[in-house]
Amino acid sequence: MVYFFYNILVFKIDWILKFLSLFVKQIREELEKRNRSLQQIFSKSADGKFVIWLHAASVGELDQAKALTETIRKKNKNVFIIQSVFSSSVKESSFQDPLADVYFYLPLDRAHAYDQIFSHFQPKVLFIMAWDTWPNLLKKANQMGTKSYLSCASLSSGSSRKNPLIRSLTKASFRYLTGIYPSHELMAKEFEGLVTETTDFQVLGDTRFESVLNKLENKSPNPTFTNFLLEQKDFLSKNKPVILGSTYGICEEHFITYLKKHKDESFYWIFPHKWEKTRMKDFISNLEQYGSVEVFSKRNPGDPLPKFLLFDLMGILAFAYRYGSFAYVGGAWLHRVHNTIEPAALGLPVITGPKIYNAPEAIVMRELGGLFQTETESEFIEKIHLLTTDQTLREKMGNGNRNFVVENRGASDKIYNRVFSNAQN
């Protein structure tokens, strides 16, 4: 019965979007893009290979899927990989990655939206990364004999899926899952009452940890940054800057307020999420009241480092954490926090804003004492001041974060071994 009402709702949403697309160019282009990406995949065939479908909601979950795909391909050469995403924040340029054989945007979760995909590719296994469990997708997979797994599974205590009105739908769709593999013990408890006895349930970790560690260990930053590090080797051996990563306007406003209230001797490396000229001009003007400011791409080699160094080049932030004392990670004042695994992997304490509930790794880091989740500007100021003055606390939090990341390496192997010991039986 709950599926009946759900499908009525989806039908209405579908009708509304199609109607609005007649008048709203942005909606029309979005629907056309999604339909185009879906239709393009049918020009390819699995040619008798073992078909595996991985689905990711957005960019972070796509990283999880890629780490798992790498392991699958290492262990099994005779596979055909389908990769779907839901969010348009995943750019079509990401679809050029050769890890998967086809990429597409998942269609709206209508009752028959997936019929052609299943009939054309006949996937044997479906991996849903983290949380994006669309009810009709799971039901259709079950009908077609596809074994479905919720991997790196996360569910926060405040999730809408546990809301009394939606809980019954969550429980009904979860019964179609062959296995649910939470990312951490602290996540496992959130699934109580939602998992049937026949569903394989085991904490197997989060593949995103190895994705981050592999990136930090095997890839290189922007060459301009490498040259900068060589130039500043002596300075960085004695000074560790505070890293402000993925900052939005509201983050920068809170930071200016901190500077108004506290004088410190710290150096700051600031990585705006987007380099918007007007916003950056105003931000730099405000920063100049509290110390020297430079933009990374415009500084002259050999110049002493300013108190505030703003980075305007891509491909640096993840590697810059290695040289920091602690990190603030943005995004959580607006939508959801950005990547907290990167600074944690390099042994840094982390401060965020309030919205971390879609980031299970951040939730666990908070519970383990390595992350400060701040709810107000005054709390943000308090935690920044605390970490700039308390080296012992920084070291304790940073060591805990590093251990947390390293201990969670190897999730892809665990998931692969758990699934594929049974998937082809």
UniProtKB/TrEMBL annotation:
Per UniProt, residues of the 3-deoxy-D-manno-octulosonic-acid transferase N-terminal domain are 46-210
Q: What Enzyme Commission number(s) appear in the record?
A: 2.4.99.12
Q: Which UniProt keywords apply?
A: Cell membrane, Lipopolysaccharide biosynthesis, Membrane, Transferase
Question: GO CC annotation: what is one?
Answer: plasma membrane
- Can you state which reaction this protein catalyses? lipid IVA (E. coli) + CMP-3-deoxy-beta-D-manno-octulosonate = alpha-Kdo-(2->6)-lipid IVA (E. coli) + CMP + H(+)
One GO term in the molecular function aspect is: Kdo transferase activity
Per its UniProt record, what InterPro entries does this chain match? Glycos_transf_N, Glycos_transf_N_sf, Kdotransferase
What coarse category fits the chief subcellular location reported for this protein?
membrane
Provide the GO biological process annotations. lipid A biosynthetic process; lipopolysaccharide core region biosynthetic process
Residue numbers annotated as active site: E61
Its annotated pathway reads: Bacterial outer membrane biogenesis; LPS core biosynthesis
Which segments cross the bilayer?
none
Where it sits in the cell: the answer is: Cell membrane
Q: Which family does it belong to?
A: Belongs to the glycosyltransferase group 1 family.
Its annotated function is as follows:
Involved in lipopolysaccharide (LPS) biosynthesis. Catalyzes the transfer of 3-deoxy-D-manno-octulosonate (Kdo) residue(s) from CMP-Kdo to lipid IV(A), the tetraacyldisaccharide-1,4'-bisphosphate precursor of lipid A.
Q: What is this protein called?
A: 3-deoxy-D-manno-octulosonic acid transferase
Q: What is the lineage of its organism?
A: Bacteria, Pseudomonadati, Spirochaetota, Spirochaetia, Leptospirales
